[in-house]
């Protein structure tokens, strides 16, 4: 549903007279608390009454103190807490008609006709059945004398909105469920730790991850850590897989690799529906290869811990969208589920998604497994380089490009140190094994510099001729964007630049036009969120303290604003939203009032270039002076710690996917532009940026992005 994205829309919303209840059901997932918090605060913001239902459907059936009105303060300090603070429980009684009748009575007593359910497909199916029976349940309550006819008229319709909380990411209709990214964080942390000890002793590790009917966690974690083999329930291996796996492991050891990692989803099966367990895999490796092999079962570690920045933001966005959906429902509106499509929160018919999810399991039970798709292509020379500041996830993108390119029959070349290395001839062929283990490493192993190509196009053209390069994949930030435009402009002078070129955005600042997301931004957000969590925790024994945190981003406020959302900040100062001394005064007054409550900690984020005069020191001194006697202040400049460290699971996965798609585009363009024994591409659509636009990855000619680019300040944002 299209909706204007402006303040007037929110000002016109009203939830006056409405009562909304939120519950979590089924298994817990990190990020559920962020969703609950968003529902409560958005509901209160629009004037509705919001209720907690503790212990899921069991609390709805039991009623009493399990259903309590929520306040703004009651959801404070929930963002960083894992699990669900309002509790979750399996409820057999709700599956019966009598149980649902009790639940209906408890809701009507409080005037609740809007229900936000956070759970899996079973929880959402139960909610839809409850909605369909609602009018009949009210009539039964009238017959039993528990409510009157007036209540039936007032509460005639029950509105349901669902959000999927499941670490398995097993629900059709959404790209990511709440909790999945955090579970991937737990898995990658364990795998990264295991790889060091495995390498020391030349061991093989077989890891079991959750996913009884869905192999998402296994597949993505295998991609993110560069595992040797992965087994998932949706795509059982072909007969004879045992020999093929052992050959692969043996070949890797022969290639001087000191360890092997095999990841198994807990529901992995073979073509005969026989379970493939970790012990079965271990025994196979020991028997056939004699390798020292160990098994690690991660279990409920994957459900625990604090939610990642991605899950906090995803759950918050979904919670807001859920409240908006409830405000816009009518008596005939079907139940919906809030999903993530690309980078956009969307509403989809709940039961259609549930039925699709169930059909997947049915197809698996009937052995209708998808056939593997093999990539084939022609032989061309493709070069990949990193440009601009380093960003976590760049190496995953390079690895993906190299291996997809080789799979399609191309010869891949690596260019070290960006455009500077390009004109100096720092170019070498890069092979499959050269990028082994790159996925989990931070920074840029190819090397990256900010040098632009305009002054060196003659030497770069010479290198293109020397190595017979047919296409370029450029991974980087705003300098990469400027660089590809300069190469495009040089086509009129040097025919060597008439070749397909594609840019993949990679920068912590997330300031590249044409893309909602950039590789590296999620890792930086996690660094900011983790630091803010620790800083807030450090004040747990100190009363009335406000922290001023400076983030990177240059003139782009993405890190400060989204980091503030994920960390639960009181204010975020960014370049895009000008502020003055009156705004600062208002924020000080807000914090002064806040310190009079039970919440005696404050957090303020400031983008490094948000204002030339209102610097971090100025804001710190202002808050310290105006808050004297009420609260004290501390400041912290996060600096380059936001740029370093191992990439997050999201950045590893995103870098892998977007780079693979870029290579597929290059293969297609090379085929289209190959004429009379050579590649010649001089159209605008042969120099593109691949970016995430709302719901999809989109190729956009860079010349079409110029009108939406602010060249005055963005080039300083790195």
From TrEMBL:
Mg(2+) binds at residue 121. GO terms for biological process: canonical glycolysis; fructose 1,6-bisphosphate metabolic process; fructose 6-phosphate metabolic process. Its cofactor is Mg(2+). Allosterically activated by ADP, AMP, or fructose 2,6-bisphosphate, and allosterically inhibited by ATP or citrate. GO terms for cellular component: 6-phosphofructokinase complex; membrane. Substrate binds at residues 166-168, 203, 210-212, 266, 294, 300-303. The active site is at 168 (proton acceptor). Residues 381-718 are annotated as: C-terminal regulatory PFK domain 2. Residues 1-380 are annotated as: N-terminal catalytic PFK domain 1. Beta-D-fructose 2,6-bisphosphate binds at residues 450, 507-511, 545, 552-554, 608, 634, 640-643. One of its GO terms (molecular function) is ATP binding. It holds the Pfam family PFK. ATP binds at residues 27, 90-91, 120-123. Gene3D superfamilies: 3.40.50.450, Phosphofructokinase domain (3.40.50.460). Its EC number is 2.7.1.11. It catalyses: beta-D-fructose 6-phosphate + ATP = beta-D-fructose 1,6-bisphosphate + ADP + H(+). Pathway: Carbohydrate degradation; glycolysis; D-glyceraldehyde 3-phosphate and glycerone phosphate from D-glucose: step 3/4. The keyword Transcription regulation does not apply. The keyword Magnesium applies. InterPro entries: 6-Pfructokinase_euk (IPR009161), ATP_PFK (IPR022953), Phosphofructokinase_CS (IPR015912), Phosphofructokinase_dom (IPR000023), PKF_sf (IPR035966). Catalyzes the phosphorylation of D-fructose 6-phosphate to fructose 1,6-bisphosphate by ATP, the first committing step of glycolysis. NCBIfam families: PRK03202.1. Homo- and heterotetramers. This is ATP-dependent 6-phosphofructokinase. It comes from Astyanax mexicanus.
